[in-house]
Specification:
Elements (H helix, E strand, L loop, with lengths): L15 E8 L3 H9 L4 H4 L5 E3 L12 E6 L4 E10 L3 E8 L8 E9 L2 E9 L6 H8 L3 H21 L1
Antiparallel strand pairs: 1-7, 2-3, 3-4, 4-5, 5-6, 6-7
Helix pairs in contact: 1-4
Amino acid sequence: MDTADLPDLPAPEDRTATASRRVEAPAGVVFELISDPSRQPEWDGNDNLAQAEAGQRVTAVGDVFVTTLRKGVDRANHVVEFEEGRRIAWKPAEVGGEPFGQLWRWEVEGDDGGCRVAHTYEWAQLTDPQRIRRALRTGPEQLRASIDRLAALAEAEAREA
């Protein structure tokens, strides 16, 4: 199958989905949940992640963390943007392979009184038709579902602290 078998694709500059909202939890609590891959299955709004081993906390560009999808496949996620407490982005790949062409980004702005969280999915560099089909189904609603789950966890942790 090639991309000719796909529906009309948006222009590369339009292959981005974003969602954001305010979270009533300290920015540090929110960022800690995002940067610790072992916590990601708890808030994944796509219900795609099964698990990630503990001890993979992201600290820098160049880090690679591995997650296991619900279908039992491991993904190596290559960190391409990182600013402690504010921004993290990664590109998924097969373990030992090159990234597929998507980018997942999280941005957190705020302080101990709460924060704004933005989640972005970019897929302009994606070429695999099967992955493009999935990318076409990933929009602001799916991203917002992840933010909402993340917010519920962060707000609960903030109340307990």
